[in-house]
Each structure stands twice: as C-alpha cells, then as structure tokens.
Design brief:
single chain, 591 residues, alpha/beta, Nucleotidyltransferase, domain 5, seven-stranded mixed beta sheet, five-stranded mixed beta sheet, 35% helix, 20% strand
Length: 591
C-alpha cells in the first residue's frame, strides 16, 4: 500500500488507464511496472520501505515485544492509540494467546533505504500497488508516510481468517499484533487484483469492489448454481437476465477451504433468496466441488473445464454467436480422460467442438510436475527421443546437455525412466501451462517452483522489454474441421529442438523466451486461419501473460480477425463459475 498517487508515480510507471484504475471505486491492487530509475521527488526516508529481518532461530517472544516492534518501526505509537477508530484496538498477540513459548520472535531489526526492498517480489518487473481506500488505511498512511507491504490474513492457499480465535491459531506465529474490532466480519473478501492489458482493465482476482456485481446475459427462466473450479474457486448463479458471481473463495485443497466454500454458497443463496433448480460443476470426477454438486439433491450438469473458460469470456464480452475459443491453462479434465490445457474450441450455442490441440506428452509423477518444471521438460524430451534419452552409454553426455535431466540424481533418473517407459503415474497432457514450465526448465531458468505458474511467470519476465520478432518452427497436421471430427494437432517438437539448439549456442534466455512466445502467437494465428472463424476469444490462465496476450491480439488484428479477451471476469479459474452459469442459461434457452 502506497500513501498517495504521487508516491506511486515515483516508484512505478503509471499510464492514464492505470491511474484511473487506482482511483476507481473498486480500488483493486493494480500490477504496475517498476520504474527503471531511482525514486523521483521524494526524500529517501519517507519513501523507504523498512525491510523486516527476523532474529536468529531460537529467540522467543517476551511480553513487551509489541512495544519494541512499534518503536523499531519508527511508528508513532501514541498517535496510533489516539487516532484508532471507535471500537478498534491494537493488541499484542501474547495478550490473547498464552501458548506462545515456541513461536518465532517478531520482526524487530530494520534495514534498507530503497523501495522496494530486495525481498519484495524478487525478479518481478511488476509490483502490486494499492492506494488506501478505508479510513483506517488513510490514518495509517498519514502517520507512516511511506509504503508498506500488506497481505491478506491467511496462509498460502487457505481462506482468509475472519474470527479472532481462528486468526490467533492460524497466524499466531506470523503476526506480532492483531488489529481487531468489536463488530464481527460477515464474510471473507480478498482485495481484488487487476492489470491493464491493451489499454483495458483486466481483473485477475474478482473480489472486493467487483463481486457480486451482476453480468448481463440473454433472459432465461432457469435458476442454477455453478460451483466453479477446484483452484481459485468462486461460485455463481444464473437468474433472469444476469449471472451473479461471488467473491474469490480460493483453492479447495484444505478442510477449512471446504467449509468456507459451503458457507459462501449458503450466504450467497440466502442473500439473493435463491432456490436453484440445478447445479453446474466441472467434469473432473474427483473435484470436491463435483462432490458437493452430487450431494446437493438437485439435477447435476457437468461442464468441460475449457468450454467453461470460453463461455466465461463470452459472458464477459457479451458474445452470443459462435467463436473460436483459445483456452490455454495448466490443466483441465478432458472429454477423453486426459489432461487438456492448450485447446482450440469452436463454440456454437451450447455446444463446442475441439478443433485443435497440442501434441500430447507425458507428465512423469503426475501432479508433482506442477511444482517441478523439470518433469514437464523430461516428458517433452522423452516424447522426442524415447529410450535414447536414458541410454547408459550416452548418459553422462546427455545429463550435461539437458539441465532438467542434470537436476535429478542418478537414482531419480532411473526411477523416472521406469515411470516414462511403463507410463505409470505419467498422465498424458496437452497443457500449455506445462509447456511453459518445460521451456523454463530447458533454458535452466527454473527446475523447481514454489508455486504453480512461477516458472511460466519468470519466462515471461525474461522477455520483458525485448524487441524480438523471430519465432521458432512448429508443425501442424493437415487435418482439421470445425465439427471436431479431425482436430488439428500442433507438433511442438521442432520448437523444442530449436530451443535446445539455441541453448547450446549460448543464446540469451530473453531472446529464447521472446521467440518461444512469438511461436505461440503464430500457432494461434495459424489455427485461426485454418478454422476461418472471425471472432477469436483468448481465455485461460496463460492469457494473464501480458506479452503473450498483447502480441496475440495485435497479430490477430493484423490478419483481419476480431480478437476478444477478458475484462471483469478473470481469465483464470476464477471465471469458471461464470462460464458454468452461462452454460446453464443457454441450456435453459435451448429447452
């Protein structure tokens, strides 16, 4: 959070559209490009960020640590006490929770005179910036007069804590102070997240300020509940002339997330006094959202993941006629039981045809590949080279040539060889997200990730600011029909071999990344030419990538196509519920 727009302009590049977005009533976190030079027009101290450094392991907290923390931060403690709004109090964690002997000591030592500190979004050319929007924020910023790093009150991949005891139990070892109020929190709502794409707003997380704003659709009598995706979950309802989508709920990976998901549905349907007649869910048989749908007692309709992506984009853009949907993401359950993820869907009315996709490859270890890009790379290499990748006579040389292979120990390589040869726990996929991961591994940018999409993000950042127009070769089968009877298959092998060749020639990662991105753009254009559908919709998590999306839009326009992309409905899985709800509405109209 930054005190003022003037402060933002000192640290980041801000366009007119981005400025308007920062000042908007929705007040989202906005992704802004870092300024290339030092801050302008601000004194060093007020513009500094205090980088928090935890003391050595083994230190324990004492009863007066809260006072030390506030004094150490140069925060005007007495002013805070004087200016806290009625009903609000700031109290040390220790005064609420006695079981704290083993908790790590709070952030006391301070260092650094630059904004941002090196630990803030390292390697990322963008910063998430938010202006104060609540009275308490304005009081805080007025007293501090320098940017602060803020995050929601939850652990990674878990819902926001809304009750004091819950917050103490979950976050007690992370926070030194808890700011509480005498009024309870009715429902958890994250800050919304947005960026500007092609001069327009693109919402990446739809929450505070945006939800539950309705999305207009063609009138329908159906009232259906859409329970969304497994990741970045939201729920939605279709009713009358609109779809109403909930705030961002989060990932369905924990028991607490499951509780919040059910609470959100109850709260949502009660708020709008809805009695839904059917439940829409993802086609994946093992998703917890699908289990909820099955146990609801209402008729259930499954909507294929990437079809829902395309429908969400159509709802966002008010499209009713046929489109060529380009749905690229990490993975979604396909109609053939494999993991889809680089899909070209020709959508008409309430049906779709899969008209093109990537050449499938295996993911050794299955879901482990999400956090280990090297596994995706190994799957690509094995698809090209087969058993030759693991030939013992050539093993050392191959390990040296291929960073993903080198990153595994000999015993791990042996186990992975068996996994790939026998196709055990090595599902087939056509995922564009895993293709991004594989390329990041091949260029040795990242072998192991701490969160999904990290490798793909870093690959995008690598080509940031590059002016490269070249692309790699790829192959496309001669088949292809809009009815999906013979879908085009895009062969990535020439692209991968060219990338390996560039790596051996010591080409820069930035140039390789730019050429790879350009290749993906040319694939989109080539399929659009073959299918001959004027309207092309870009959707799915991969189109959060600014370089990819803006290049694709520009190339499609240059070729005479009419491209569409997301605005207020997220292109990622946060928009799946909207797509499912539109499927219900269209089904109702068809009946």
């Amino acid at each position: 959070m930054v005190p003022s727009l003037e402060s933002v302009k000192a640290y980041c590049e801000v366009s007119v559209v981005e400025e308007r977005l920062l000042r908007s009533p929705e007040a989202p976190i906005v992704l802004l490009r870092r300024a290339t030079g030092p801050p302008i027009g601000l004194a060093a101290d007020p513009g500094s960020i205090r980088e928090l450094i935890r003391p050595k392991d083994g230190a324990t907290k004492s009863d007066n640590d809260a006072g030390e923390f506030i004094a150490g931060c140069n925060c005007m403690h007495t002013s805070w006490e004087r200016r806290l709004p009625a009903g609000t109090s700031a109290i040390p964690r220790n005064s609420l929770c006695r079981q704290d002997a083993g908790a790590p000591r709070g952030a006391l030592a301070l260092s650094g005179d630059q904004f941002p500190a090196g630990s803030v979004a390292p390697g990322n050319p963008y910063l998430g910036i938010m202006l104060p929007y609540a009275p308490l924020h304005h009081l805080l910023m007025a007293d501090l007069n320098f940017p602060i790093v803020a995050t929601s009150g939850n652990r990674a991949e878990e819902p926001i804590c809304t009750k004091e005891k819950e917050a103490l139990a979950v976050l007690g070892d992370l926070a030194d102070l808890f700011l509480i109020h005498n009024r309870p929190i009715a429902r958890p709502v994250d800050d919304s997240l947005a960026r500007v794409m092609m001069g327009r707003e693109l919402v990446l997380r739809r929450a505070r300020g945006y939800a539950p704003l309705p999305i207009p659709i063609k009138p329908t009598a159906a009232v259906a509940l859409a329970v969304g995706a497994h990741l970045k979950n939201t729920v939605a309802v279709s009713r009358g002339q609109e779809i109403v989508a909930s705030q961002h709920i989060g990932d369905m990976a924990t028991p607490r997330a499951w509780e919040v998901f059910q609470e959100a549905i109850h709260s949502f349907t009660s708020l709008y006094n809805l009695n839904y007649a059917s439940v829409m869910c993802d086609a994946h048989p093992d998703y917890r959202t699908a289990l909820f749908a099955k146990q609801s007692g209402q008729p259930v309709q499954k909507v294929q993941h990437h079809f829902a992506h395309v429908l969400s984009g159509m709802a966002d853009n008010g499209l009713e006629d046929s489109v060529l949907g380009v749905a690229w993401d990490g993975a979604g359950y396909g109609l053939d039981g494999t993991l889809w993820g680089c899909e070209f869907l020709y959508v008409t009315n309430n049906a779709f045809h899969r008209v093109a996709h990537l050449r499938p490859f295996r993911l050794p270890g299955g879901e482990k590949a999400i956090h280990e890009p090297r596994r995706s790379a190994l799957g690509l290499l094995y698809e090209i080279m087969g058993e030759g990748l693991f030939e013992k006579s050539d093993h050392l040389r191959r390990s040296d040539l291929y960073p993903p292979l080198r990153s595994f120990s000999p015993s791990e390589r042996q186990a992975l060889h068996v996994v790939l040869r026998r196709a055990i726990n090595a599902p087939l996929t056509t995922s564009a997200g895993r293709l991004f991961d594989a390329v990041a591994s091949l260029v040795n940018l990242r072998q192991v990730a701490t969160f999904e999409g990290q490798a793909a993000m870093e690959l995008e950042f690598a080509c940031d600011g590059m002016t490269v127009n070249e692309s790699y070769e790829f192959e496309m089968s001669q088949a292809g029909a809009v009815d999906g009877s013979s879908p085009l298959v895009i062969n990535w092998a020439p692209t991968v071999l060219s990338i390996v060749k560039d790596c051996r020639a010591d080409e820069s990662i930035g140039k390789i990344s730019a050429r790879f991105h350009n290749t993906l753009v040319e694939i989109i254009v080539a399929v659009a030419r073959r299918i001959r559908q004027a309207r092309v919709l870009l959707t799915g998590g991969c189109f959060q990538n600014k370089y990819l999306t803006e290049r694709a839009i520009a190339r499609l326009r240059a070729e005479g196509f009419l491209p569409f992309w997301h605005q207020r409905v997220p292109p990622n899985d946060g928009g799946i519920a909207v797509g499912q709800a539109l499927a219900a509405a269209r089904q109702s109209l068809a009946e």
